[in-house]
């Protein structure tokens, strides 16, 4: 008869329970408790998947930027073609002012999932951050429609001090 690793399977089940609990806690924004559950899941089963991306987002929300960066890199190694991971890391880079890195990851997300609305909006914001407002408008329009694209472009132009162009978009 084959030998069953009961202790190992028990730890795997506990790890899955911790991961699931972490997901639920993250959903209701109990970030510190969620982080603890994801870390416990890893402790119980070092091969458990699906924790790095969640931890990256949680660490980012907690402003633990080095930890977020580390977890995003792990998540990208685990799932290099996951549009959600690529999008979230792209936004992380955007919010840190790394527009070139952000654009690269957001375009990769859209290559994997062309209808990823959040990646398209984040790309529009990234392009605007680089002063590429015409390209930004195109991405806003693809994601939101023409009227919303004009409005969003206007707001970004006004924020960047381009009052005349911003007012033109509003008109």
Task: Give descriptors for this structure.
78% helix; mainly alpha; elongated; 171 residues; single chain
List the helices and strands and how they pair.
Layout: H1 6-27, H2 31-44, H3 52-61, H4 65-78, H5 83-95, H6 99-112, H7 117-129, H8 133-144, H9 146-159, H10 163-170
Helix pairs in contact: 1-2, 2-3, 3-4, 4-5, 5-6, 5-7, 6-7, 7-8, 8-9, 9-10
Helix/strand structural class: mainly alpha
Number of strands: 0
Rounded average pLDDT: 92
**What is the count of DSSP helices, taking H or I runs of 4+ residues?**
10
Order of helices and strands: HHHHHHHHHH
User: Span from first to last CA?
Assistant: 78 Å
Characterize the main sheet. none
What characteristic shape results from the CA principal axes?
elongated
Q: What percent strand? A: under 5%
Please state the CA-atom Rg, rounded to the nearest Å. Answer: 20 Å
Q: What share of residues is helical? A: over 70%
Structure description:
The protein is an all-alpha fold. The protein is built from 10 helices and no strands. It is elongated and about 65 Å long.
